Amino acid sequence: MDLFDSDSNDEEVSFKINEGYAKNYEKWRKKEEKQKLLDRYGKQETSDSSSEEEEIRSTPQMDKDWLRAYAVVRFQQPRLYKEDTAKPISKKKEKAITLKDHERKFILEKGGIASDEESKKPQTSVGKSYYEEQEEIKKNLKDAIGDSSDSESNEEEDLLVKAHKTEEQKQQEENEYLEWLKGERESLGDPDAEAELAPLKQYWNDPSISEKEKVLRDYILNNGYMDQEESDSDSDDDTAKLHEGPDHDEEENFLKEADKYEYKYNFRHEEPGGDEIKSYPRIIETSVRTKDTRRAEKRKEKLERKRKEKEKIKDEIRLLQKLQMEEKMEKLETLRKIAHRPDLDYDLDADFDPDKHNEIMKKYFDDDYYEEDDADQKPTFDYDAAIDEEEGKHCSNGL
């Protein structure tokens, strides 16, 4: 006889999940995990803003200065070893004389008593400063020219303003430098620059330079370091001018290939490998000897362990950012429900700004918003004697 037959027949036993507790438990778990991550890494930024690196672009003046510096260093010119430019002359700092030092010296030398001649001796005039001397020179220059009025003085000052070169002029000067180095121009008009760049010009125009130097020469003279979009439209013309006439590089390569072919053809009957020295590897791969790779394996395990730790930290930081974003959206959704404004948008992470806060309040909680709330209040009606007397009777009877 089954003791539980009556119970099983009357009603079925079923389990019911407490959904409210399940939701709260999920929130508690998220908050607990978020707090652990905050204690470990601190608050993380959720924005994906990235700063772009500023590109350093060369200018014509920078290119000219670089060429001159390269020529000085490449050919060890004497200017590189001048003593006045190699080391700055260090001057000993004179010790400042204080009032106590002056009084001590005065008591030791004069006994603290000043003579009549020293008291009557006029004080020596202090020399003029650098700026005072410059002002005096300007004043003497104006007096010599004869400018008395302010307008004329302004015109004279305008005459002394240094003229600034345009970008086209700077680019033209750079092109002149490159043309002179290629041998397409006789002079630069700058004796100092020609003296510094003369060894470089002579070296680059020598047909017997190595292949590496030729590549470097073409790379610099044709502005190979610039982007294709930023390069000048005249770069193709400059390259064509550089390679006008017979191509010596191709001729040399052709002669080398011809010599190799002739050598192989003449000695084709010899034993193969006779002109090569046989060598054997230090470590033979097919050896039966076991390799001791324990240290290498330990290093690999250590690197793999560090990589996994970094990945774990990155995953935890991403999870923390996700939890912060979810909490922010929950707070914003709560505000929307309380305010009955589903279009409410407010940055909860930003610092509090009174002016911005007032603008948002005016935008979402204006007069129309409060007029809608008044519509839900209890309406008021005009006085009706019959209805009011009937309500009074019910109230007196306790209804």
From TrEMBL:
Gene Ontology CC terms, in alphabetical order: 90S preribosome; nucleolus
Record key words, sorted: Coiled coil
Coiled coil stretches, renumbered: 293-326
GO BP field: endonucleolytic cleavage in ITS1 to separate SSU-rRNA from 5.8S rRNA and LSU-rRNA from tricistronic rRNA transcript (SSU-rRNA, 5.8S rRNA, LSU-rRNA)
Residue stretches of biased makeup (Acidic residues): 149-158, 227-237
Keyword Coiled coil: yes
Name assigned to this protein: Protein KRI1 homolog
Region: Disordered, residue numbers: 35-61, 110-176, 221-255
Pfam families xref list: Kri1 (PF05178)
Basic and acidic residues bias: start-end ranges: 35-46, 136-145, 159-176
Organism taxonomic ancestry: Eukaryota, Metazoa, Spiralia, Lophotrochozoa, Mollusca
InterPro entries: Kri1
Top-level taxon of the source organism: Eukaryota
